[in-house]
Amino acid sequence: MTTYSPELAIAPPSEADASAPNYIEMLETVISSLEQEGTAMVSHAQEGYLWKFGYGSAEVFVQLTGLTDDDTLTVWSEVMPSPTTLPTAMAVKLLELNWSTTLEARFALLNQDIVVVTSRTLAGLSPSEVSRCITIVATLADEYKATLSA
To answer: What is the Cα 70 distance to its own chain's centre?
Structure first.
């Protein structure tokens, strides 16, 4: 399992921010519409907001670095554990896929795993964009789990 520790503490929205979008509610609504029944877990700790849930065969992580328009939404899913040494052919393949196949997402290394990840600031974020980010990441992770490890 990919582990991730949010690095920024997030303060809850203040009463003065009543007109600001409720990003937590938006994310939880989208996640509940996409997740496989009973797979969603959420951490609303002082360290930040992190959701984990199943989508197809993928385990998807969604993280907020904060609740302002300048903060970031990041979605990622493990594709495979990274080989001890990443073969040049695989590295080239991942870079080619980043250019031609991954849309707004990209392949990356996180800890010891090859993941698919996308991120964007929260400014102007809509539920359909959240859904698109999650769907792209989960679909690519699901598709490339088999092909890259073969």
So the answer is: 17
Q: Are 77 and 105 in contact (CB under 8 A)?
A: no
The pLDDT value recorded for residue 5 is 39
Query: Please, what's the largest Cα pairwise distance for the chain?
Result: 53
Nearest CA-CA partner of 129 in 99, 105, 97: 105
pLDDT score, position 150: 60
Q: What is the DSSP letter of 70?
A: T
- Dihedral of alpha carbons 119, 122, 125, 127, sign: positive
Q: Which residue has the tokens 């302002």?
A: 68
Q: What is the pTM of this model?
A: 0.83
Tokens of 117: 């990840």
Banded pLDDT at 83 (limits 50, 70, 90): confident
C-alpha span between 112 and 52 (Å, rounded): 18
| pLDDT at 98 > cutoff 80 | yes
Domains and CATH numbers, the chain: 15-149 (3.30.1460.10)
DSSP letter (8 states) at residue 82: P
Which of 119, 73, 113, 116 lies closest to 98 in space, CA to CA? 116
Residue position matching structure tokens 């088999």: 146
Average pLDDT score over residue span 29-35: 87
